[in-house]
Amino acid sequence: MGPFSKQTEISTIRAFDASANRAREGLRVVEDSVRFILDDRFLTEQLKQLRHDLAATLSKVPIDRRLTSRETQADVGTSLTTDSERLRNDIADILTSNFMRLQEALRSLEEFSKVFNANMSSQIKRIRYLTYTLHRTINTIINSNNRLENVRLYVLIDGQSSLGALETLVKKLTSSGVHAIQLRDKMLNDRELLERAKLLRQLTRAKNVLFVVNDRPDIALLARADGVHIGQEELSVKDTRSIVSVDSLIGVSTHSIAQARQAVLDGANYIGVGPVFQSQTKNFEKFHGVELLESVADEISLPAFAIGGINQENICEVTGSGFNRIAVSDAVTSSDDIKTTARTLLDKLAGK
User: Fold this and answer.
1) Shortest CA distance to 342 belongs to which of 176, 220, 207?
2) CATH architecture of 148-349
3) How does pLDDT run across 21-38, given as a tens digit for each residue?
4) Concatenated DSSP letters for 8-36?
5) Quick one: which of 32, 173, 174, 182 has the most CB atoms within 10 Å?
6) CATH for 6-145 (3.30.420, 1.20.1300, 1.20.58, 1.20.1260)
7) Residue 168 has pLDDT above 70, yes or no
8) φ, ψ for residue 3 (rounded to 5)?
């Protein structure tokens, strides 16, 4: 420590101690909220590791020095409070309040720690920036779960042979209880694809059905779609978000637990998980079965749709893995009775 007077040294340690306590308290509230309310194993582990890293960094100012310098009874700030501190509206409010408390405390720690150890200041700075990412991630999960709360059956379609054929199919789907429709077509030129997308937007909006465009954030933006879905080889979530609106849903295809975790941290609003079984619409070298679904269901609370070869015969394997959302194509669109097939799948997803 530099050439401070003894009293200044004690005061500096008191400031460091107070911020350390605020940071640890705020982080504990966030971790408990994610663990017990969101029930998210992956993010709970991230927060637990963050808490351990913070404790290890703070230990560079020995606890006995902090306790010796502590004087709560004479602290002028202990009696200061505001009405907003007495009320929390919901879990999102609890999380935001405590993340902000944590981040403010970390910023104070970052400055005061420079007096003791420059390397400690850098470590605290790294932790502070990580909390910004986790705050965004957890807030995205809460908002996405609220927005997609009742979205269970997600159907992927191509642009069909004509606008008339597309309209006929979409009207059958929207009247059958389908919750979301994705337009995925690699064959149409851009003008034809946009024309189809605008028609889909019109038809889905009339029935309050979500409309998503595959791979093309530019088409999604122009058609005013609810969102865009991207794969592992397409634009990143960050780049996609820079094109579509801040309110647009961004879905990400994931084929491993590592990819699912990364999509969560990247800020995806939902993930597709699979392929579960062999599909007639897309070729894959490997089919993950329900094992991947079980891993995702165990760790991740972000909305997740099982995808790949799911139909009336195997859907019970999907629901048995902990999933109650699916994305399908031929299983519904090629059915002789779209309405009955969709209703059957919805009943299975609801556990009937």
Assistant:
1) 176
2) Alpha-Beta Barrel (3.20)
3) 999 999 999 999 999 999
4) HHHHHHHHHHHHHHHHHHHHHHHHHHIII
5) 173
6) 1.20.1260
7) yes
8) -80, 65
